[in-house]
């Protein structure tokens, strides 16, 4: 698979959304200015670039593995999500992406399966590529304590392929419909431009990170889980398939902690939240996730809006 520099350049005439760039090495060193920048990103947009994450070589190997897997015959793609399985809006329009999920639990316990088995292209790289990639994506500090690698979790890594969409396809034709992420944090590595309402320009060596519903709920609305979608790459990039790897962090025992009802703590304490009803839903993270996935299916298009995870933003289009 070609490197980012071998792709057609991201067009200059396409509006993009600026993101703060957070330096992971400075965060680990406890740099106050970088920590403040990180806090600003997490409490405003909920998206940011992460540089100096040290995973470039592993990311390249993960893309190679993804291409090998997607090239397999359909019958060999175990635990594979085919294009068109989910709706992207309330009209029942079908998505165009294909992907395969790899459970963190299976990668760490390999060769003993915990949840499921995988194609040969995945198992061949499980020990030397996938497991190190997942371990590297486990954050240090408080998040690491909440995502303990020795406990069962819903964390996973996903290879996503969106086919070429040349010919002036409208940006409104989403590959994945509007949604917030259901876990706590997502690390995205991509090769072509993608859209979260506005395009986010890919920068070599930078991951695009965002928070999910778990962080919004557990912080009492202080940390932001923002609505986003995926549409075709812009300009000359549209003639190529769009590949991405995402590593999603989900709190360790997915059947445990329910959203707390207490006052938020930390730097944003006392900040007013827009809608507190979501914080007392009584759902576990496992129930929250299962409901959202179920409502994405094309047969459930009449209640598709309930798949987006935006109960705290009922006015979102």
- Residue runs with pLDDT of under 50 for 5 or more positions: 1-5, 252-274
Secondary structure tally: strands: 12
Q: What is the structural class?
A: alpha+beta
State the name of the first-level CATH class. Answer: Mainly Beta
Précis, in short:
It is built from 8 helices and 12 strands.
Provide structural commentary.
The chain has 317 residues and is of the alpha+beta class. The chain has one domain (4-307): Jelly Rolls (Sandwich). 25% of the residues lie in helices and 17% in strands. The chain has helices spanning 24-28, 32-43, 56-70, 104-109, 120-137, 142-146, 213-218, 285-296, and strands at 21-23, 47-51, 80-81, 98-103, 156-162, 176-179, 185-190, 194-196, 198-200, 207-211, 228-230, 242-249. The strands form three sheets. Strands 1-2-10-7-12-5-4-3 form an eight-stranded mixed sheet. Strands 6-11 form a two-stranded antiparallel sheet. A two-stranded antiparallel sheet has the order 8-9. Strand 8 and strand 9 form a beta hairpin. Helix 3 packs antiparallel against helix 5. It is globular.
């Amino acid at each position: 698979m070609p490197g980012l520099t071998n792709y057609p350049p991201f067009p200059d005439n396409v509006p993009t959304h600026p993101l703060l760039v957070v330096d992971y090495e400075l965060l680990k060193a406890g740099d106050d200015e970088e920590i403040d920048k990180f806090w600003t990103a997490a409490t405003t947009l909920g998206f940011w670039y992460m540089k100096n994450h040290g995973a470039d070589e592993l990311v390249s190997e993960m893309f190679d593995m993804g291409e090998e897997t997607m090239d397999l015959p359909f019958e060999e793609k175990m635990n594979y999500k085919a294009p068109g399985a989910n709706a992207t809006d309330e009209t029942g329009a079908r998505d165009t992406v294909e992907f395969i999920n790899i459970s963190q639990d299976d990668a760490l316990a390999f060769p003993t399966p915990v949840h499921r088995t995988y194609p040969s292209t995945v198992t061949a790289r499980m020990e030397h590529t996938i497991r190190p990639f997942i371990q590297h994506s486990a954050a240090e500090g408080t998040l690491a304590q909440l995502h303990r690698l020795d406990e069962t979790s819903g964390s996973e890594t996903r290879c996503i392929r969106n086919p070429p969409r040349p010919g002036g396809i409208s940006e409104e034709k989403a590959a994945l419909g509007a949604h917030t992420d259901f876990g706590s944090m997502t690390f995205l590595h991509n090769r072509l431009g993608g859209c979260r309402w506005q395009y986010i320009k890919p920068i070599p060596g930078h991951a695009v990170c965002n928070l999910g519903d778990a962080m919004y709920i557990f912080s009492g609305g202080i940390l932001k889980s923002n609505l986003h979608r995926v549409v075709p790459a812009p300009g000359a990039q549209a003639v190529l398939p769009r590949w991405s790897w995402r590593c999603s962090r989900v709190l360790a025992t997915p059947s445990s902690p329910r959203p707390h009802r207490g006052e938020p703590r930390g730097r944003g304490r006392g900040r007013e939240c827009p809608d507190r009803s979501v914080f007392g839903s009584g759902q576990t993270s496992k129930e929250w996730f299962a409901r959202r996935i179920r409502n994405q299916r094309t047969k459930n298009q009449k209640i598709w809006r309930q798949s987006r995870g935006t109960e705290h933003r009922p006015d979102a289009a």
